[in-house]
Design brief:
Shape: elongated
Number of strands: 13
Distance between the termini: 97 Å
Largest sheet: 5 strands, antiparallel
CATH class of one domain: Alpha Beta
Structural class: alpha+beta
Number of helices: 14
Helix content: 40-55%
Amino acid sequence: MAKRRAKKRKRRDERLPNGSVVNWSRRFEDGTYASGRIRLRVPVRCGQCGQVREVGASTARGPKFTGLCRACVDLGKMFQIPRSTLEHLYCEEGLTQREIAERLGSNPTTVGKRMKEYGIEAQPPAHVLKTAVPDEVLHRWLPELAYVVGLVAAEGNLKKVHRNTVSFPSTDRELIETYQRCLGVSLHVYTQHRPGCLPRHQVTLSDPAYRGFLEGMGLTPAKTKERTLGALKVPDEFFHDFLRGAIDGDGSIFVRTDKRWSHSHRLVVSLTSVCRPFLVWIRDTIVRLVAVENTVRQTERAFTLTFTGTKARRLLSWLYYAPDLPCLQRKRAVWEAYMRGY
């Protein structure tokens, strides 16, 4: 006599004390394996917002499972971290966000969100606070200082959250080292590896004097996002150093070969920015100092100022006026190779 298959008994839906409902009757297999068994998932309805999401069956059986969605969990934790508690732990005791989270049984992300909602200003990391730009660097105009202003105008970031902080990111490690050498500082280099992209290096400096100097030049926080970048207070005698820094930060120097005549090569210098007034100011200053004219053109996502042929040669001869200038060597090598060939 054939054995009868045991009929699987459906587990009843479970209502948790906070109102969340675990729909065991609608559990299903997701097709993946764990410990030799097919994973089971079960729909769960949040008891506060009513959102339905799918969680693992083993998670739903756990003793600490509440059934609430992540947003409601964070909202609940907010009321468990009063403003006075955060101010005492962060401002008076000097604990980090991670240490506060460990003490309160929360997580650093939630602590950071509550601090932002309460208007508690976060302090820069410890390694950022240990370094300051020497006074003699900021009190006297030199090619190195003008070059740094050009780099920050093109690629730098004056932080809104940390009011004394200036960060400079670049995919060129050489540019990061040159930036530090021009300022006379040694900073921690944070490297971010992104799939399919070049590694992104960044240095951050918290110095009220340095930040005040850059703001006095005309730089503002979120200059690119809010389109506030315009004319800067750079002396004319150091404008070529400033422009060299801007091109190294967000410009390009290359040789274009004609598709029809392979023997025809044209030198190209371009500078890109989302702020048209910034490029217009640079163009007008170049016309006044070098007598090289051109037009600011609009592309799909930004504005460009491009010089080609004779204009590019005159401009680069003016920018690279000495052999030991701070610059990005790979861009200068394009110019030198072009001049050797012609």
